[in-house]
């Protein structure tokens, strides 16, 4: 496995200034880890990655895993077979997969709300996202397929969040939510504002919903 270490090097004269370019420098894993993992055969590596995906995101479909892994159905099917993954029925009729030690019924966590950052694994983990995005997909991702910030209520995305010039977090919902859910989102916004302590989080991944939220916040006295 090869890692990268960033550096900056001058490039070009332009007569009056030099332009600096970020250049990654390759580093072998053993150079920056005290206990580097042993090399794996490709099939073993794929199996381990599929196991870790199922541990974090299962149940998921074969298409989800193929998309995330960037590999083929043949590779994924072989890994699922070796892991003795269990097929389960998903809402909508698709077949999902779970690890054999992860088939117990999950208890209801009760009402909850969360504000997650751009590119969070929770929203990026699956290819098939309708079960938590609903009709909001186009508003929550930029044109390259990168997720912006998201506001969640009870396992579904209901909006996004932004920061104003002072670093205060504001939530914009894309659908009607209950009064209790709105209070929970507002409480999360206060908590996140306090945790960030005035630090503004910059990002190049700005969704349509975030752009609209910025406009609304700017127009609000």
Describe this structure in words.
With 221 residues, the chain is an alpha+beta fold. It has helices at 29-32, 42-57, 62-69, 73-82, 121-124, 130-133, 137-140, 179-196, 208-219, and strands at 2-11, 19-28, 86-89, 95-98, 113-116, 150-153, 156-163, 169-173. Strands 5-6-7-8 form a 4-stranded antiparallel β-sheet. A two-stranded antiparallel ribbon has the order 1-2. Helix 2 (42-57) packs across helix 4 (73-82) and helix 3 packs across helix 4 (73-82). The longest helix is centred in the last third of the chain and has 18 residues, at 179-196. The protein is globular, with a radius of gyration of 22 Å. The N and C termini lie far apart (53 Å).
Core attributes:
disordered N terminus; globular; four-stranded antiparallel beta sheet; 221 residues; single chain; two-stranded antiparallel ribbon
Summarize the structure.
The protein is an alpha+beta fold. The chain has helices spanning 29-32, 42-57, 62-69, 73-82, 121-124, 130-133, 137-140, 179-196, 208-219, and strands spanning 2-11, 19-28, 86-89, 95-98, 113-116, 150-153, 156-163, 169-173. Helix 2 (42-57) packs across helix 4 and helix 3 packs across helix 4.
